[in-house]
Design brief:
Layout lengths: L1 E8 L6 E8 L8 E9 L2 E9 L6 H12 L7 H33 L7 H10 L7 H18 L8 H27 L11 H19 L4 H5 L6 H13 L4 H14 L15 H33 L9 H24 L5 H27 L5 H35 L7
Antiparallel strand pairs: 1-2, 2-3, 3-4
Helix pairs in contact: 1-5, 1-8, 2-6, 2-8, 2-9, 2-12, 3-10, 4-10, 4-11, 5-9, 5-10, 6-12, 6-13, 12-13
Length: 422
């Protein structure tokens, strides 16, 4: 829906007039940008600012995507991916998953026509008396994430925070990399054998494959693409290539270095394995926590957008009414997430289930099926067969990964009690 609003005419110069063109989407309450069309001597000039017209440059979108894949989850891939798969399977799997994910995300782009472990780790560095338990840390993390969600009304408003996110990412990745390298040089013997028993190895491998998919995909590419400047497809492809080339290097560096240094004993939170000065590890954990707050906001943005649209939140996002709405709705949403995180301390197991039930279907199955439906009259029989093979193959893999994840959750539920302090 497009409306034009006359905003003024310069009475001193009758050859100049200014007209505001606002593109209003009935599908979303979130602003993207406003545009001013200035007519001078019958020649139109356009100026865009934050509002409803997509205005984010491709490199900003690239940093949003890179923030997603280099969140604090990268500190767990040495233990959750490399340990079950080993050097050959892990390295091959990460590279192959990157290529497949890039391909699937580009398909979606061409159709355009949450963590409390870091806080706990900080506390343990200085005092291990058990007074500050993991559930308390998760509650604190949830409160900080809520404060951030209240102040950032929509995805485009992140802007400067993406710079902070990138800085925080480099801090904990570089520290984890350097300390792992130092520990690896000191270690004389490392064991790279799979610690899982032979009977459970198939399930752990399938779970690791689900984690591979989870590592590269946010599942919210259409929402991000809605903010990118025109030409949207070309700029989105630039952002994706940035994400899967330069943006993926930190992920590879810390994942491979962590596994090289500690082998099969690598912790699922790498900073728990490294040895070094307490203040350095504290700095890494603080950076990890702060970056997680920003990354969580990116992951939760589709939910925020849905809630804002459903309940008709329009106008100035910082008006008292809209701020109070965000406090109530987003605060409630994060309260539920925080409670579940504290209730189930082995929430990392749910990463595999998330990859199986959402990332696989949304990123691979749905992307290929949508492409088939939209482009079916333009695809050759071999091309159609290829996309159907992807739909069927990834559907089967999603089912297998879901079974493996549920089995892991059931197993850990017998080992850990609710609100456990890990």
């Amino acid at each position: 829906m497009e409306t034009e609003v006359e905003v003024g005419k310069d009475k001193r110069r009758n050859y100049y007039d200014e007209k505001l063109t606002i593109v209003v989407s009935e599908d979303t309450a979130h602003q993207i940008s406003t545009g001013v069309c200035i007519s001078y001597n019958h020649v139109a000039y356009f100026h865009f600012s934050s509002g409803l017209v997509p205005s984010d440059p491709w490199y900003q979108v690239g940093f949003v995507l890179t923030t997603g894949i280099n969140s604090s989850y990268v500190l767990g891939y040495s233990g959750s991916i490399m340990v079950p798969l080993g050097w050959i399977g892990g390295v091959t799997g990460l590279l192959l998953a990157a290529a497949i994910s890039l391909y699937a995300n580009i398909l979606v782009a061409r159709l355009h026509e949450v963590g409390g472990q870091a806080l706990k780790a900080i506390y343990v560095l200085y005092s291990d008396d058990g007074a500050l338990k993991l559930p308390y840390c998760i509650a604190i993390a949830g409160f900080v994430c809520a404060l951030f969600a209240f102040g950032i009304p929509h995805l485009s408003a992140l802007r400067v925070w993406l710079g902070f996110s990138t800085f925080f990412s480099f801090v904990y990745i570089i520290i984890a990399f350097v300390l792992s390298l130092r520990d690896g040089i000191k270690a004389h013997v490392r064991d790279y054998s799979n610690p899982v028993s032979h009977g459970d190895r198939i399930f752990s491998t399938i779970g690791a494959v689900a984690n591979l998919v989870f590592a590269y995909n946010t599942g919210m590419l259409p929402e991000i693409q809605a903010t990118v400047k025109e030409p949207a497809i070309k700029n989105m492809e630039k952002a994706l290539w940035f994400q899967f080339t330069i943006g993926g290097l930190p992920l590879y560096a810390v994942t491979f270095m962590g596994y090289w240094a500690y082998g099969s004993s690598t912790s699922t939170y790498l900073l728990n394995s490294v040895q070094g000065p307490v203040w350095v590890k504290t700095l890494a954990n603080v950076a990890s926590f702060l970056q997680t707050v920003i990354a969580l906001h990116i992951f939760a943005s589709p939910m925020y957008e849905y809630l804002d649209t459903k309940f008709g939140r329009v106008g100035n996002p910082f008006s008292l009414q809209n701020v109070l709405f965000r406090v109530g709705v987003r605060g409630g949403y994060l309260t539920i997430n925080t409670l579940v995180s504290a209730l189930l301390p082995f929430l990392g197991d749910f990463m595999s289930l998330t990859g199986a039930l959402s990332t696989f279907p949304l990123t691979f199955v749905l992307a290929n099926h949508m492409y088939l439906m939209v482009k079916k009259n333009k695809l050759s029989p071999p091309q159609k067969a290829w996309h159907w093979l992807n739909v069927v193959g990834f559907s089967c893999l999603a089912v297998a990964a879901a079974i493996a994840a549920v089995r892991l959750i059931v197993f850990d539920s017998k080992t850990y009690h609710v609100f456990a302090d890990l």
